[in-house]
Design goal:
Elements lengths: L14 H8 L16 E2 L4 H4 L13 H7 L4 H13 L22 H15 L10 E12 L8 E4 L1 E8 L6 E5 L2 E5 L27 H5 L5 H12 L6 H14 L5 H11 L6 E7 L5 E9 L2 E7 L6 E8 L11 E13 L11
Parallel strand pairs: 1-3
Antiparallel strand pairs: 2-3, 2-4, 2-11, 4-5, 5-6, 7-8, 8-9, 9-10, 10-11
Helix pairs in contact: 5-9, 7-8, 7-9, 8-9
């Protein structure tokens, strides 16, 4: 079945929003960054971030880290220092979270995210069975440190494919760098379980969701953001950054139902410190406009097509010099190429028409 989403028609802002967006989208993209993607992901990163007790691993659960693979090293190394000093509870200068999501504003980022949410909500919801898989194909590159402790450098972008059970009752599959890694129970080449542990994700969470779990999330942005803050409290480098990263994870290697996807974007607009980057480049060399947030000198960007506002990928860039990396250094980059639904792990969506 063909479930790869079709590209929506270009979005036309309202007159009131056009003035806000005019300064965001006028600059012709530059192509100079496409040559910077040069090195390859270290295989050991698949295992390095699986233990929740490791301070540098960030907040993701063991199962989620297996699918997300890695945390940018600049942020991870900082987490070690903060954990040792007991400073992980709040970001410097962050307002306290009393359980009430802040009201939306009309900042450039909020205007852009509202337009993105409107497009997401208008997409048709796919017909999905419990026994199927969400499939995401992407190009990715992460930073890795040399064994001699040398500064982290970005690896060469490479292909990555992941299959996640729709309801979590079956093992998923990760295909990357010539490896096929079962996610939970063992599977054979056809994607069928072959072990005594058939469940792939029987207890999904925000950090390790299934499609059915995403369907159950509230579609009111304020309620959804409160849930994210509540369930990630005490994790990661700080509540605001953790909320932003959690939403990014939900968007990157899953398929959110349209109304939930729209709510996630509108929830992100309420996180303090979210801004717009006029031009950003994903791992496939595609330029777009980005919604971003800076934490500990590193800027995390969600990149969108300028015309369709379709999610293209993510990029992490150093916004200032730190002990771990230099300003302007790209520490992570991804590009989502295909999303779809398949009947078996290892299959790709069939195209028709």
């Amino acid at each position: 079945m063909n479930t790869t989403p079709s590209r929506p028609a270009p979005v036309r802002p309202t007159p009131a929003e056009r003035e806000e967006l005019a300064r965001l989208l006028p600059v012709p993209p530059e192509r100079e960054l496409s040559g910077r993607h040069r090195q390859a992901l270290k295989d050991q990163l698949l295992r390095e971030f699986r233990q929740d007790t490791a301070p540098a691993a960030g907040p993701r659960s063991a199962a989620r880290r297996l699918t997300a693979v890695a945390v940018p090293l600049a942020a991870g190394a900082l987490a070690v220092t903060l954990a040792a000093s007991g400073a992980l509870d709040r970001e410097p200068g962050a307002r306290p979270h009393a359980g009430v999501a802040p009201a939306p504003d009309r900042s450039p980022a909020a205007v852009l995210l509202d337009r993105i949410a409107t497009v997401a909500a208008a997409r048709p919801a796919p017909a999905v069975r419990d026994d199927q898989y969400v499939y995401v194909a992407s190009t990715v590159a992460w930073s890795s440190r040399g064994a001699d402790g040398s500064a982290p450098r970005l690896d060469t972008p490479h292909s990555r494919g992941i299959w996640l059970s729709v309801d979590g009752s079956r093992p998923g599959l990760l295909r990357e760098k010539g490896m096929e890694i079962p996610l939970a129970g063992d599977v054979d080449k056809s994607g069928r379980p072959v072990s005594d542990h058939p469940a792939g994700n029987p207890a999904p969470t925000l950090g390790n969701p299934t499609y059915r779990y995403l369907e159950s999330l509230p579609t009111d942005p304020g309620t959804l953001l409160k849930k994210i803050y509540d369930e990630t409290r005490g994790s990661g480098p700080g509540p605001d950054q953790e909320a932003f990263v959690t939403i990014g994870d939900l968007l990157r290697e899953q398929m959110a139902p349209p109304k939930v996807g729209a709510a996630l974007y509108r929830a992100a607009a309420r996180i303090p410190g979210v801004t717009v980057v006029d031009d950003a480049v994903d791992a496939a060399g595609r330029h777009g406009v980005a919604v971003a947030r800076v934490h500990a000198g590193e800027r995390t960007e969600w990149i969108f097509d300028r015309n369709t506002l379709e999610f293209l990928g993510e990029r992490s860039v150093m916004a200032e010099d730190t002990a771990w990396a230099r300003s302007g250094q790209i520490t992570a980059t991804t590009a989502v190429l295909t999303r779809g639904i398949t009947d078996r792990a290892g299959d790709t969506p069939r195209r028709t028409g």
